[in-house]
Each structure stands twice: as C-alpha cells, then as structure tokens.
C-alpha cells in the first residue's frame, strides 16, 4: 500500500516524538516534549506508510489567536524527502485552517526556501505578538531566536 496522509492518533505520539527528536538533532526544527505532543495530538496530521501505523512524516496546525494559526513540527523522513510529502502535509494543515475560518497562517522555520515555494513570505517576529508571548518566551533560544518567521494569507 502507498503512503497516505491521515489525522494523528494517540498511539502515534511516540513515533512522532522519535522523528521530531531525530530531526531536531539535525537542527531542522526545535524539539517537542512527549507531554506537549500528547496534549496537542489533535493538531497533527501524519504520513502513514501502511495501516500498521509506521509514521513517515508529520505536521501540526496550532491555533494561535482568533485570526491566525501556526504550522509546526513539519517533518518528513529522509527517505521520502523530495517527493512532495512535506507540501501535502502543509496543505492538509492549511485546509484545516480554512475549515476553521483562519485565513492567516505562519511558521517559524529554518526551511525558508521550502515555505517560500508554498507562497509564504518572510515577516518580522513583531507581527506575531501572540506567538512570542505564548510560546517563544518559554523557549531556551528566547530572545536570540534563529528561526525565520513566515506568513501566508489564504
């Protein structure tokens, strides 16, 4: 069976955590704790290799405020990179945003070129005060964040 995208479930959390930590070790994104993943599992979509639950990628849409959401924790295993799975994961999350009535979506990323190809534009972090005061202030990299803020209007 070919890989497919689906909503994440609680049994996926440990595998999502493993691939996020692997990619965080490569400085592709920031790490997430198991506790955070369990509490936000409804935000995630995954690339499933088969009905057995082998997770090959993931992405989350986190609601930040009444008019904006964030793409978080985008990962595709190296064996699937370059095949469009990252784009499909982000598009699934953006579709959820529109369904929820959210037409502005941002990300903080090291993957500027990837998001630029999806229509995101670089913005200053000062346009995301809700993010800064809700999450960034607790990050060990704050206030010296080296991620790039990007935004798309849907």
From TrEMBL:
Key word Cell wall biogenesis/degradation present: no
Q: Which Pfam families match?
A: Acetyltransf_1 (PF00583)
Under the heading InterPro entries, the entry gives:
Acyl_CoA_acyltransferase (IPR016181), GNAT_dom (IPR000182), NSI-like (IPR045039)
UniProt enzyme class: transferase
Which GO cellular component terms, listed alphabetically, does the Swiss-Prot or TrEMBL entry include?
cytoplasm
Which Gene Ontology MF annotations are present? N-acetyltransferase activity
Among SUPFAM superfamilies, the record links this protein to:
Acyl-CoA N-acyltransferases (Nat) (SSF55729)
Q: Which domain of life is it from?
A: Bacteria
Instruction: Name the UniProt key words of this record, in alphabetical order.
Output: Acyltransferase, Transferase
> Which EC numbers characterise this protein's activity in its record?
2.3.1.1
Q: Where is the N-acetyltransferase domain?
A: 3-154
- PANTHER family referenced in this protein's UniProt entry, alphabetically: ACYL-COA N-ACYLTRANSFERASE, GCN5-RELATED N-ACETYLTRANSFERASE 2, CHLOROPLASTIC
NCBIfam families registered for this protein in UniProt: PRK07757.1 (NF005840)
From the Swiss-Prot or TrEMBL record, give the protein name.
N-acetylglutamate synthase
Which source organism does the UniProt entry give?
A: Nitratidesulfovibrio vulgaris (strain DP4) (Desulfovibrio vulgaris)
């Amino acid at each position: 069976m070919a890989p497919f995208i689906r909503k994440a479930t609680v049994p996926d959390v440990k595998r999502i955590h493993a691939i996020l930590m692997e990619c965080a070790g490569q400085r592709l994104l920031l790490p997430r704790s198991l506790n955070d993943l369990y509490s936000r599992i409804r935000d995630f979509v995954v690339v499933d290799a088969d009905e057995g639950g082998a997770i090959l990628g993931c992405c989350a849409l986190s609601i930040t405020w009444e008019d904006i959401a964030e793409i978080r924790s985008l990962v595709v295993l190296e064996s699937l990179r370059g095949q469009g799975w990252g784009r499909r994961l982000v598009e699934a999350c953006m579709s959820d945003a529109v369904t929820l009535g959210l037409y502005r979506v941002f990300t903080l990323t090291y993957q500027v070129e990837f998001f630029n190809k999806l229509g995101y534009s670089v913005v200053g972090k000062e346009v995301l005060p809700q993010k800064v005061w809700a999450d960034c202030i607790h990050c060990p990299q704050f206030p010296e964040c080296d991620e790039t803020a990007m935004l798309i209007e849907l």
